[in-house]
Design brief:
This protein has 211 residues and is α/β, with parallel strands linked by helices. It contains 8 helices and 5 strands, in the order βαβααβααβααβα. The longest helix has 25 residues. The structure holds P1-(5'-adenosyl)P5-(5'-thymidyl)pentaphosphate (T5A).
Length: 211
Amino acid sequence: MVDRLTGKFLTLEGSEGAGKSSNLDIVVTTLRDCGVDVATTREPGGTETAESIRELLLAVRDEPLDDLAELLLMFAARAQHLTTKIRPMLRAGTWVVCDRFTDATYAYQGGGRGIDAASIALLEQLVHGDLQPDLTLYLDVPVEVAFQRIGDRDLDRIEREERAFFERVRANYLERAGREERIEIIDASASLEAVAAAVEQTIRRFVAAHP
Ligand code: T5A
């Protein structure tokens, strides 16, 4: 049976400190101003069970987390999130704005950890082959700037990775953004105001194209 999803699916991507959380509000305010019914969520997480998987993924433990276990947990959380939250909302005509989605898996588990893209694509196909974001805003910022922004806050397991890991993450995002038409690159090294203006403009353009 064809799953009729009438809402639009928007995602925000970027390295830590790129400003996703800061700009999620801009996306929502702009959409509401355009008369769109919108809900927000995040990955990994978004539902009670998926948030528990998030805790497993981000907790700092003595036992290192196996790369493949990390990949499978990301998709386990995603499967739960899609079934219990994202698809029902899209079916009801609500637009969903998600802080990170599968582009993050290609960037972090693919680019960062070195897992081959074909294995990720296999899981992507299994979990949501028929559903892709309609628009992705990739907030691009040099690793150096991102780490200055997050400062000396308590870092989670992934944030504790070395700089080279985040350089590979960024390179992977940029490479995908160059290939995928749905991904809009926003220069997130600019001021908060300038980034917010670019985000708002991109969202208004998208809404105008999808009345
Ligand atoms: N992950 C996730 C994977 O490995 N694979 C996957 O498939 C998925 C889905 C989740 C982690 O999981 C990984 C990636 C992540 O490591 P998360 O919840 O998305 O993490 O959280 P982070 O990315 O760590 O979120 P951050 O809060 O660090 O980044 P944000 O949301 O991009 O940044 P934000 O908005 O909180 O801003 C950080 C600081 O910078 C300032 C803000 O005021 C804030 O203080 N700032 C600016 N300052 C100056 N100019 C600007 N333009 C600014 N923009 C923001």
